[in-house]
């Protein structure tokens, strides 16, 4: 049965979006919009290789709160910053930490 392109697009758009899988292995690091300026924290799904979130700052509280909202996280790869170590301890105490060396 032939259909128009508009009808096909409407049918595809009406389909429910798949629920994204909960991340299990994440990496956290600082990120900057401009060189020499630290703006926040980036959280990456290391299994699926995509950015999950960009947090507004590097504070312990912000990252800990984000981790508490995602209880399925089992491994956190992070740099050796003390803020990130405290955040993982507070927000994902059950997760394994992997501290990496900075570049």
Distance between the ends = 58 Å
User: How many strands appear in the DSSP assignment?
Assistant: 5
Summed over residues and divided by their number, the pLDDT gives a mean of 88
DSSP helix fraction: 25-40%
What Rg do the Cα atoms give?
18 Å
* Tally of separate domains: 1
Going across the major beta sheet, what is the strand order? 3-2-1-4-5
What letter string, H or E per element, gives the SSE order?
HEEEHEHE
CATH architecture: 2-Layer Sandwich
Overall spatial form: elongated
Provide the low-confidence segments as ranges: none
CATH class value? Alpha Beta
> How many helical stretches?
3
Which structural class matches the secondary elements? alpha/beta
The major pleated sheet works out as: 5 strands, mixed
Q: Provide the CATH superfamily.
A: Ribonuclease H-like superfamily/Ribonuclease H
